[in-house]
Design goal:
The protein is mainly β. It is built from two helices and 35 strands. 5% of the residues lie in helices and 45% in strands.
């Protein structure tokens, strides 16, 4: 008898691990949950878990899942928003999710009935991946059988025994490729089965991104650090930043997505970031930019504002498709000049995902598309040689050049001071105002180029 008890004692720790690599017992010992919010019941003759709307995530105990199959039956308790299964859960900030939108049960044409998305830094990225949702044959008032097959970068989701997956995800977008499994949403859940390494015939390799074959996406942008943009304020031309401040670079993910949430994490308040790219055209031409964005965008071409738009789901002002990011969000006309054209975007966000997708309408006559490269920082050899007042017979205005913290400042008449960036060899410019100055200290003169016109000034 003593030996038998010792054997049972040795097997007990193994039972938990075994139960999580096959059928998971519908008992409190198998799960982690908030006490008092979960019931273990018999529902429609099945051992089940009853989750309330306030249960939070109910986690399978001690499971670290990477690849394999997760299956379960669920019947939602109406009314409700969603029934969710999480996987690769590192914590509340980093996890991946598949969820059924309960309101779409019975509607076989609802494109958003089932969705996959990652959580990145606590942000549910549902609005960044509109292609990762689909119709599904969800039943009301009955059990629904859900099956997830996960292998490497790929996942397929089946609902109610369909031969074909309702979702076929070409690339899982989460930060981590392994972690816990949990459930959430008012519902009854039964017949949970987790089978690691049971990946069927699903390849672990990332599926193709067909947009990679399209050369007209703007895939590389120089960008600034995000800053707070107070509620009600707009980005303006006066806020355009000097090229020197575009010190970082971001590259597009699949389908041309510039994923600002992955870059900067969650925004606790409304913020704006500035991005800059260059389109080089062989000649002057009319073109356009198909632009996806979340949530607000201001578009500048060669320093001039040309477009403002909003994609505000929470304010009932969401763009097609239903407030999610897509190149179908808006179309921006671009009147390109010969040579290099600077496209600058100010993008604001304080709601879920943050990003941009930009696709040029036509590449006919386009020589290059690429990120903006900040001009090199050149120290001024002797700023004093440029200081003073200058006048011109060609323009009825006096220029005053002063120094402020080692930066050359120019003032035309009673206009505000403009900071000038040094480019070497006595050349200065202000990109935002499209002004260039070239000094000839030995002659006490300077050449001002503004609006395509050239003016000579002499030092007084």
């Amino acid at each position: 008898m003593k030996k038998r008890m010792m054997l049972i004692g040795m097997l007990l720790p193994l039972w938990g691990a075994y139960s999580q690599t096959g059928t998971v017992p519908m008992s409190p010992e198998s799960f982690e949950f908030t006490p008092g919010t979960v019931e273990f019941v018999t529902f429609k003759d099945r051992p089940s878990i009853k989750l309330a709307a306030n249960s939070g995530q109910v986690v399978i105990k001690g499971l670290n899942f990477k690849d394999g199959t997760i299956e379960f039956d669920v019947e939602s308790i109406l009314p409700g928003f969603a029934q969710s299964v999480y996987f690769h859960k590192r914590d509340e900030k980093e996890q991946e999710i598949v969820y059924l939108r309960v309101a779409n049960a019975g509607d076989t044409l609802a494109n958003e009935a089932v969705q996959y998305c990652p959580y990145i830094d606590g942000v549910n990225m549902w609005d960044m991946y509109p292609n990762y949702q689909a119709p599904a044959p969800i039943k009301k008032g009955d059990w629904n059988h859900i099956k997830l097959v996960i292998h490497g970068k790929r996942m397929q989701v089946y609902v109610n025994g369909d031969t074909w997956p309702v979702l076929d995800i070409p690339k899982l977008e989460g930060i981590y490729g392994e972690g816990g499994v949990s459930f959430e949403g008012a519902s009854y859940i039964s017949n949970i089965s987790v089978r690691p390494e049971d990946t069927g015939n699903l390849s672990p390799e990332e599926g193709p991104d067909l947009t990679r074959h399209q050369s007209n996406y703007l895939r590389e942008w120089a960008l600034t650090e995000p800053v707070v943009l107070e509620s009600g304020r707009e980005a303006t031309r006066e806020q355009l930043l000097d090229g020197d401040l575009y010190k970082d670079v971001i590259t597009a993910e699949r389908e041309g997505l510039i994923n600002l949430t992955r870059k900067f994490g969650m925004n606790q308040e409304r913020k704006v970031v500035w991005l800059k790219a260059v389109i080089e055209s062989a000649s002057a031409q009319g073109n356009f930019l198909d632009l996806g964005f979340s949530d607000e965008v201001w578009v500048f071409l060669n320093g001039q504002m040309v477009w403002v738009d909003k994609n505000l789901f929470q304010q009932g002002a969401g763009k097609y498709p239903k407030g999610r990011i897509s190149v179908a969000n808006t179309r921006v006309p671009l009147n390109l000049k010969p040579g290099k054209n600077e496209v600058t975007l100010a993008v604001a966000n304080d709601f879920y995902g943050w990003g941009v997708i930009a696709r040029l309408g036509s590449t006919d006559g386009i020589l290059a598309i690429g990120k903006f490269t900040p001009p090199p920082v050149v120290p001024i050899e002797d700023i004093n040689q440029y200081l003073g007042s200058y006048s011109s017979k060609m323009a009825p205005v006096k220029l005053t050049l002063t120094s402020e913290n080692g930066i050359l400042m120019a003032k035309a008449g009673d206009q505000p001071d403009l900071a000038l960036s040094y480019r070497g060899n006595h050349h200065f410019e202000n990109i935002k105002e499209n002004i260039k100055l070239t000094f000839h200290p030995d002659q006490n003169t300077l050449i001002l180029i503004s609006g395509g016109q050239e003016y000579e000034f002499t030092k007084e």
